[in-house]
Amino acid sequence: MRMTLTEKLLARASGRASVRPGEIVMVEPDVVLSHDNSAAIWEIFQQLPQAAVKRPDRLAITLDHAVPPPTAKHARNHAQIRQFVQAQGISNFFEVGRGICHQVVCEEGIVGPGLTLLGADSHSPHCGWLGAFGAGIGRSEVAALWATGELWLRVPETMRITLGGKLERGVATKDLSIHLIGQLSSDGATYMAVEFTGDGVGSLSPDARTVLTNMMAEMGAKNACMAPDAITWRWLESTLSRTRPQDADERLALFRESALYGDADAACALERQVELGAIEPMVSCPHAVDNVQPLSSVEHTRVDVGFIGTCTNGRLEDLASAAEILRGKRLRRRLLVIPASSMVLRDATEAGYVTTLLEAGATIGTPGCGPCMGNHMGVLAPGEVCVSSANRNFRGRMGERDAEIYLANPAVVAASCVAGYLAHPAEVQGGDSP
Prior knowledge:
Elements: H1 5-13, E1 24-27, E2 31-34, H2 38-45, E3 59-62, H3 72-88, E4 93-94, H4 101-107, E5 116-119, E6 133-136, H5 139-148, E7 151-154, E8 157-164, H6 173-184, E9 192-197, H7 206-215, E10 223-225, H8 230-243, H9 248-258, E11 270-275, E12 282-284, E13 292-294, H10 295-298, E14 305-308, H11 310-313, H12 316-326, E15 334-337, H13 342-350, H14 353-360, E16 363-364, E17 385-388, E18 404-407, H15 410-419, H16 425-428
Parallel strand pairs: 2-3, 2-5, 3-4, 5-6, 8-9, 8-11, 9-10, 14-15, 14-17, 15-16, 17-18
Antiparallel strand pairs: 1-7, 12-13
Helix pairs in contact: 2-5, 6-7, 8-9, 12-14, 12-15
């Protein structure tokens, strides 16, 4: 039977030879992910008959959504999670400052090719860039996983997106993601598997790939993925040698043994072809991610503040593109930059990007989610206009409900904070917008 990558991943996770779209399968995930919401999940878990987590070795918990804790309530929440982690013997626990859960579990080699992750966060499809299955589920479902180690899932239909060519300079996979969501709408892939394939994938860096799988959550996807290739393996080898030198070779061998590849002729519910060279800088306008316009159509819209970060665009490549724009310039508008992890922050510091950002007048925050969900570290005031590299822009997402959020790639965010309005990077670098 010919199967897509997602179908093969779920077949393995459910202990079956094959699965078909629409079937209900019982899955035993390799990783069960949660973050600051672990305290709320623990309260649900305590209502279940099980006294202990069945597979503590499969749990991964990261403090990332409100870090450092902005209120006494958040601090109590974190303290409760630390007590739970110690009592249950959970080794994959990452403290305040390590970074955003999706970035951290990839860097730490907790998830990788062929594995399955279910997480109490809607952007859990993120890890699919490694050739893994990742899906977001509710807190009650995570509590059930803590108790039993298994959960039922419906096998999703697949949307195959074939990428050709190469992105033009100044265009990022954030623009491609926004373009796709604008074309298909925010519910265009509801409970579907979105699989990226084609020669164009090979032109994308690891940082660029993560944006695609992460942002498909904003199109309603159950999961998003792409098969591992030479670029994937080089990233894993380099990263694991830093984060887990004691067993990097062993972990890499496991991933190579576990890696799965979809059948090229497997049936899909939908197929789309995208020529990367035809993509231009795009913007999601208030107050919906699928309210999409080319940047050229909304240039010179007033901007009060910019934000570069989140699980979508807080990686080294993103900070590098912002630093390139800001080198030798001064900001006219506030710019908050929050790296996705401590590893990104360290690498950006060593590369000189942090110095460049600071000299331009930017503010650097603790690795984590920051103001993305309106918790703290840069929430918006009434009437303010923000250009953000995050993934959502609905009312109240980053503070006051009458603030406005535009979503764009990090270079556009940086350029706009120099210009004081939505601007193409070429404008502030002395060139002309295409």
